[in-house]
Amino acid sequence: MGLFDVDENVHLENADLDCEPQNEFANKKEVKRIDKYLDPGEKVHFLARSAGEQFEIDGDDVDDVLAQRTAATDKRIVVKKKKNPFGYESQSIRYENISSVNLSTGLVKKKLRIETASKVYGIGVGKLSDDAAEAMCDFVRTKMSKAQGSDSESGANEDDPLDKLERLGDLKEDGAISEAEFEEKKAELLEQI
Hints:
- The protein is α+β, with helices and mostly antiparallel strands.
- It contains four helices and nine strands.
- Residues 1-6 have low confidence and may be disordered.
């Protein structure tokens, strides 16, 4: 540790960094900036930083994002977006909702392309080396495959209203459905209980 390293003085409320694999940005100082968007005990395996022009939804750049941090955890992908000098917004994409993930690299930009049933995200990982970006992509792909494998094994519970309610909450959290759609379907499911 160098003279100005204060990593040991940083306290994380939620994130757990005791996991493998990890990249060089998954350290206390960097993870602290995204910690409040994580669940208690959520393991951070990869962290990427990028300028905001590298965030897109369905092929369109999201203009009001100035910068972003992206964490690939044991549960999901969490993106913290700086919207203006004082505002932040987070996006969460659960592995079981991802249908494909790829890494696209150009001369200057590197993006994870994450496809879900409702959206395609382009998430900049430009501050990572090519090898680290590829490792992050492989990690997400592995987590996606495992999540989808466990979903097919638990297919007997697909008709359970509580399971449906949980999946409905995930869809709302991911932005796939609106608050009104969520409330309507939630009322229908609660009647089945």
